[in-house]
Amino acid sequence: MRVLVVEDERVLADAIATGLRREAMAVDVAYDGAGALERTGYIDYDVIVLDRDLPKVHGDEVCRRLVAGRTASRILMLTASGEVDDKVEGLELGADDYLAKPFAFMELVARVRALGRRSAPALPPVLERSGIRLDPGKRLVTRDGNEIALTKKEFAVLEELMRAEGAVVSQEDLLDKAWDENIDPFTNVVRVTMMTLRKKLGEPAVIETVPGVGYKL
């Protein structure tokens, strides 16, 4: 899942990003509204965590522009106010969800995951295919009932393959969804991650390489 965190309090923004990355999400950060609009102009995010009170371009205006541009991203709006009128106002701007500060981090994670499921065709919270069971909320993967320990990136790659439901996923799409904007597009990290993931999943092999196209499960 690709997430953009837009928050002008840098310590908070970086803490949220670090926490979400630990949950196997690819996370970029913008510290003002202008930076958010710039990034959303060339990157498709599943979820945008958007603070309302932003410099340069206010969070409300960022939300309006994204909605007017028919963004497919789901927007979780953050604000220091938990008053009902403020929540209603934020949702009426086009936000998909609203969370008042201070918040419990695991609630933020749960809301981001719920919105991420809504950014694509509906899929069950727990994914199952070819004897593999993947639970994003618990960060748990099993095959034929046996638990498999995966790194964050291996987990993220496997999740994207399972969400594709048998369709081919390109290396570019895997880089986009499982890594952030700092990754070198010419890196062989996807191939290396796929090798270790296949080894951990064991036999019979379930991940197929489609030459010149990508991978499918």
UniProtKB/TrEMBL annotation:
Keywords on record: DNA-binding, Phosphoprotein
Protein's name according to its UniProt entry: Transcriptional regulatory protein CutR
Domain of life according to the entry: Bacteria
Alphabetical list of InterPro entries matching this protein: CheY-like_superfamily, OmpR/PhoB-type_DNA-bd, Sig_transdc_resp-reg_C-effctor, Sig_transdc_resp-reg_receiver, WalR-like, WH-like_DNA-bd_sf
Source species taxonomy: Bacteria, Bacillati, Actinomycetota, Actinomycetes, Streptosporangiales
Entries under SMART domains matching the protein: REC, Trans_reg_C
CDD domains: trans_reg_C
DNA-binding region(s), chain positions: 124-217
Residues annotated as domain Response regulatory: 2-116
Name of the coding gene: cutR
Organism (species): Sphaerisporangium melleum
OmpR/PhoB-type domain sequence ranges: 124-217
GO MF term (any one): phosphorelay response regulator activity
Gene Ontology CC terms, in alphabetical order: cytosol; protein-DNA complex
Modified-residue entries (4-aspartylphosphate), positions: 51
GO BP term (any one): regulation of DNA-templated transcription
